[in-house]
Write a structure and sequence with these properties.
7-stranded antiparallel beta sheet, Rossmann fold, globular, glutamine amidotransferase, alpha/beta, carbohydrate derivative binding, 8-stranded antiparallel beta sheet, Glutamine Phosphoribosylpyrophosphate, subunit 1, domain 1, binds fructose -6-phosphate, SIS_dom
Length: 599
């Protein structure tokens, strides 16, 4: 989603801003812009499409040591140049970048800005016009900014320039992520530390409803009511190699290849004295709960479906898994002692966050499972379990899914063991086996490429079926394929196809089946016979020990509950190669954003 950067210091800001925006490209965007400010005023450059287009539009002769930049993922108004950020007030005095959605922008426009001619269709422009409106009434910029903030309903991360004060960036945030990065002779702002790792690894978290005055030599944080806030910087635990592609053609392929290492890292992070473990207070919260409510979106929701199987089978706790955007507004009848588990790679997903806010208001405890330490969902929950997957840059989630499944398995296993339940395998050893199995599959990726090229090159749709835990992975396989190759794809419970969807099967329609569960493998093979009889092109993915002659892929055997870690790998690779074959932008698929910070 939208990304923000800002710099104020001693050297020219343009390149720092542009490089910062390039590091935010992964979040998804459709236009980009920067504004730089010097004693002569503010200069705005913006373009539709990639940062490369923006680079071409920037006037190299303009030198300025302060500026703000933005990548926009359109919400209000189509992606065009006038809707791209930064936006300017009517006189051009104020310039603003905004991430988030202002729900009452139309009302504010009607109440305060009847006489202002708007230059864009965005909610953002209302903010910058309001600042000017209040400044024209005699308020200082600081006062006009605060007055404006007090009127906004919705989410925002903001960076504001006033051309009458070339030494300040005004910053504020509510619900949308924003960090201040600190340096010796400069300070920066960024939606994600990655954007400014080029100049500093020292960052200060900002909290909701804080206003920050950023100058080259100082950062002053206050709450909206004027109370001073002191907060020490932390060191971002990232290095540039984590966020570079290296020799890989795409981040997605790099991240797929990283998955065996991610599982090993998780095992090591959750091992104490040779035993898998989680914090005692999380164990206590799980033990007290009479039901778990897993809340998530997209791929993280699919990991949650696997997590349900783990908690019910290994820890004997009933679980409901809910799509975050549905749960908040259609809350089911809750059990007496619920524990909420939020699963989110980014830790910033607005749909999940709105549920967390409601859950906290109701006084319930929440655990967040996330890849991003210090993210909003982590800060606002009672407990956090980290994924240790390293930054995931490709929009399509791969290693974070595998990490989510592994952390859910560890959590359920540790809880089951601490309750004295009979779990007849050693999870630590089995996760090692699964990591090796993933490596074996990755080492044969050329074979998977051949399957993808053969069956997905020209098809307009595809189906993925499975039963039990394989059904959960089928849905993830379908999501991966549609999001990066734009092939219409659906995941179904094997037994459900014949209740309607089978009508879509035509001559040559690819149907992928996962057959990794002993008790259901024959049933799913039976379902495949039904679609083959109607012309489908079958691709059966099975496991050693359960294979049959015509199976397209036979994966190394792993503990039956851990098959989602392994069966998802060929599906990720199949999607990757289908997208490559179709010349799609693998890492930045159309219309998608990595961190979905609007509801
Ligand atoms: C799919 C994908 C999305 C995310 C979803 C939730 O590849 O990445 O479906 O899983 O937007 O995002 P997080 O996990 O950051 O809450």
């Amino acid at each position: 989603m939208c990304g923000i950067v800002g710099y104020i210091g001693q050297v020219d800001a343009k390149e720092i801003l542009l490089k910062g925006l390039e590091k935010l490209e992964y979040r998804g965007y459709d236009s980009a812009g920067i504004a730089v400010m010097n004693e002569a005023g503010v200069h705005v450059f913006k373009e539709v499409g990639r940062i490369a287009n923006l680079r071409g539009a920037v006037d190299e002769s303009v030198e300025a040591t302060a500026g703000i930049g933005h990548t926009r993922w359109a919400t209000h108004g189509v992606p065009n140049q006038s809707n791209a950020h930064p936006h300017q007030s009517a006189s051009g005095r104020f310039t603003l970048v905004h991430n988030g959605v202002i729900e009452n922008y139309h009302l504010l426009q009607q109440e305060y800005l009847q006489n202002v001619t708007m230059k864009s269709d965005t909610d953002t422009e209302v903010i910058v016009q309001l600042v000017e409106h209040f400044a024209n009434e005699g308020l200082s910029t600081d006062e006009a900014f605060r007055k404006t903030l007090s009127l906004l309903h919705g989410s925002y991360a903001l960076g504001l320039l006033d051309e009458q004060d070339a030494e300040t960036i005004y910053v504020a945030k509510n619900k949308s992520p924003l960090l201040v990065g600190v340096g010796d002779t400069f300070n920066v702002i960024a939606s994600d530390a990655m954007a400014m790792l080029q100049v500093t690894d020292q960052f200060v978290e900002l909290h909701d409803e804080e206003v920050v005055i950023v100058k080259a030599a100082s950062v002053s944080i206050e709450k909206l009511d004027g109370t001073k806030v002191e907060r020490a910087p932390y060191t971002a635990q990232l290095d540039m190699s984590d966020i570079e592609k290296g020799t890989y053609p795409h981040y997605m392929l790099k991240e797929i290849d990283e998955q065996p290492g991610v599982i090993r890292k998780i095992v090591s992070a959750y091992t104490v004295e040779d035993e898998l473990t989680i914090d005692a207070d999380i164990k206590a919260a799980l033990s007290e709960a009479d039901r778990l409510y897993i809340i998530a979106a997209g791929t993280s929701y699919h990991a949650g479906l696997v997590g349900k199987q783990y908690f019910e089978k290994m820890a004997k706790i009933p679980v409901e898994v809910h799509i975050a955007s549905e749960f908040g507004y259609n809350m089911p009848l809750l059990s007496e002692k619920p524990l909420f588990i939020f699963i989110s790679q980014s830790g910033e997903t607005a749909d999940s966050r709105q549920v967390l806010v409601k859950v906290k208001e109701l006084g319930y405890k929440a655990l967040t499972i996330t890849n991003v330490q210090g993210s909003t969902l982590s800060r606002e929950a009672d407990y956090t379990l980290l994924l240790h997957a390293g930054p995931e840059i490709a929009v399509a989630s791969t290693k974070a899914y595998v990490a989510q499944v592994a952390v859910l398995a560890i959590t359920a296993y540790v809880e089951g063991k601490s309750k004295g339940l009979d779990i007849d395998f050693d999870l630590k050893a089995e996760l090692g086996v699964a990591a090796n199995a993933i490596q074996t599959i990755i080492d044969k990726k050329e074979e998977i490429q051949q399957v993808a090229d053969a069956v997905l090159a020209t098809t307009r749709n595809a189906f993925f079926i499975g039963r039990g835990i394989d059904y959960c992975v089928s849905m993830e396989g379908a999501l991966k394929l549609k999001e990066i190759s734009y092939i219409q794809a659906e995941g179904f419970a094997g037994g459900e196809l014949k209740h309607g969807t089978i009508a879509l099967i035509e001559e040559g329609t690819p149907v992928f089946a996962l057959a990794s569960q002993k008790a259901m493998s024959l049933n799913v093979r039976g379902n495949m016979k039904e679609v083959v009889a109607r012309g489908a092109n079958p691709i059966i993915i099975s496991m050693e020990g359960m294979e049959e002659a015509d199976d397209s892929m036979v994966l190394p055997a792993v503990q039956e509950l851990l098959t989602p870690l392994v069966t998802v790998i060929p599906l990720q690779l199949i999607s990757y190669y289908a997208a490559l074959y179709r010349d799609c932008d693998v890492d930045k698929p159309r219309n998608l954003a990595k961190s979905v910070t609007v509801e």
